[in-house]
Amino acid sequence: MPLSPEDIEARRFAARKREIVERVLPVVEQGLGEDGSYLNLKLDRILHGASLAKSTFYRYFKDKNELLLALIDPVLEDVRVAATHPFDRGSAPTLAELSADLRRNFDIYRPHIPLLNALVEISYSDPAIRARFHQGFAEVHQTIGRHIAEGQRAGFVRAEVHPAQTAAWITWMAERGMSQLVANGDAAERDRLADSLATMVWHTLYGR
Q1: Which residues 6+ apart lie within 8 Å of 159 measured at CB?
Q2: Which residues contact 48 (CB under 8 A, 6 or more apart)?
Q3: DNA-binding region spans which residues (predicted)?
Q4: Residue from 179, 207, 172 nearest 193 by CA
């Protein structure tokens, strides 16, 4: 069935919006890395860095917060895939395997820390931003909780662990640790941080 003119226009609009998001993302992340605050990052600076006209911006976004929502979607998906990978298995990992998985996660997560911090910053004043932030990490929480429950049924996760509550601690401990610890650590420090987090998680879930 051929597409209607409205459908064609909607697809063109969505494709153009994705193109703008891809162009703007590195400009915003660089600005956040320098200034540390999304509130203080001026729209004119973003548009200048992305060579984007203000009229074009307002055709696709009503304001900077709506832009942030669009910017964060691909980032949260990258984070979700990376964060759930260590728990996408049907048996207990070795401590070394878990540490290596977490270390890879650090390298995926680290470039996006300024943008994720911006999401936290704006979430205090914008309910839509707050909901998107919690939704993104709720998927990580649920995946880890399922892994724990399934592992208990299979016998490789400790039976006394509470799946939902332990998954919540792992999720939010890691999320804040990325921002507070991993962001500024050099490669050797990130190795030690990965080993430390892996040790805590491994002994909590699998250790005897």
Answers
A1: 152
A2: none
A3: 42-61
A4: 179
Q: What angle do CA 159, 89, 138 make, to 5 degrees?
A: 75
- For 14-40, what is each residue's pLDDT tens digit? 889 999 999 999 999 889 888 778 999
CA distances to 40, 172, 182, 203 from 95, rounded to whole Å, are 42, 21, 20, 9
Residue 1 clears pLDDT 80, i.e. is over it: no
> What kind and span of H or E run contains 35?
helix 5-35
Average pLDDT over residues 173-190: 91
Domain boundaries in the chain?
A: 5-205
Q: How many CA atoms lie within 13 A of 16 on its CB side?
A: 13
Q: Where are the alpha helices (DSSP H) in 54-186?
A: 54-60, 64-84, 95-109, 113-123, 127-154, 163-177
Q: Assign a CATH topology to domain 5-205.
A: Tetracycline Repressor; domain 2 (1.10.357)
**Rg (Cα) of the chain, in Å, rounded?**
20
Q: How far apart are CA 10 and CA 4, in angstroms?
A: 10
pTM for the model: 0.83
pLDDT digits (tens, 9 = 90+) for 143-156: 999 999 999 999 99
Q: For residue 185, which amino acid is it?
A: G
